[in-house]
């Protein structure tokens, strides 16, 4: 598969959750509380795509395949896309863009604050994701900014864990996957530093 065909196919596949949610809206398939369902679906896919993004570099290094690196930027932008949908669904459908109610909800529930901070942490990597920004910032600063994704992913997992009241198995699975990915990154970083110093 050519690079263009790979990216086109991946782009279409990344839109499948959005299209599926839209079909549920049009067919009244979201249950008794459509707003809550949309919030949960968009949040799940935002976290899914963040984990997918973080998994592509380890997949490249462990397998030697080059295609994961070519898809990393697209996966990250789709993580942000679903995070935006998640935020709009919460602020618009659930709170009717009443910022007073949103502030009151945030003060009452820590998960709202954690989720919002995680969303904000995604902004610098998104707005500096182009090759032009890499050249303007320099690779070292650009790389540091993109490490904010790790904090955003951690916040997203905590946000999910705080949301669930009873059965926390699913958010714990997300947390475990994230721990493995971050553990791999840390191990690779320490190995690289040891290699340079030896």
Question: Can you walk through the features of this model?
Answer:
The protein is an all-alpha fold. The protein has one domain (3-190). 85% of the residues lie in helices and 0% in strands. It has 10 helices and no strands. Helix 3 (34-63) packs antiparallel against helix 4. The longest helix is centred in the N-terminal third of the chain and has 30 residues, at 34-63. The radius of gyration is 18 Å and the shape is globular.
CA-based shape: globular
Given helix and strand content, the structural type is mainly alpha
State the total count of DSSP E strands.
Answer: 0
Strand residues, percent: under 5%
Discrete helix count = 10
Indicate how many domains the architecture comprises. 1
- Radius of gyration from the alpha-carbon trace, in angstroms: 18 Å
Distance between the termini: 41 Å
The main β sheet shows up as: none
Please give the share of residues in helix.
over 70%
State the low-pLDDT regions, or none.
none
Mean pLDDT: 92
Order of helical and strand elements: HHHHHHHHHH
């Amino acid at each position: 598969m050519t690079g263009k065909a790979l990216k086109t196919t991946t782009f279409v596949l990344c839109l499948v959750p959005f299209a599926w949610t839209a079909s549920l809206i049009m067919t009244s398939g979201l249950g008794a509380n459509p707003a809550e369902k949309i919030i949960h679906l968009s949040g799940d896919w935002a976290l899914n795509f963040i984990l997918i993004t973080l998994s592509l570099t380890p997949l490249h290094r462990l397998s030697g395949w080059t295609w994961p690196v070519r898809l990393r930027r697209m996966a990250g932008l789709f993580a942000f896309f679903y995070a935006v949908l998640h935020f709009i669904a919460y602020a618009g459908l659930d709170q009717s863009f009443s910022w007073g109610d949103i502030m009151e909800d945030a003060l009452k529930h820590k998960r709202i604050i954690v989720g919002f901070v995680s969303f904000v942490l995604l902004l610098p990597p998104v707005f500096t994701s182009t090759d032009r920004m890499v050249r303007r910032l320099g690779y070292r600063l650009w790389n540091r900014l993109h490490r904010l994704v790790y904090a955003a992913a951690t916040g997203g997992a905590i946000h999910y864990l705080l949301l669930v009241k009873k059965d926390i198995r699913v958010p714990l699975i997300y947390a475990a996957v994230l721990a493995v990915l971050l553990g791999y990154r840390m191990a690779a970083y320490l190995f690289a530093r040891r290699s340079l110093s030896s």
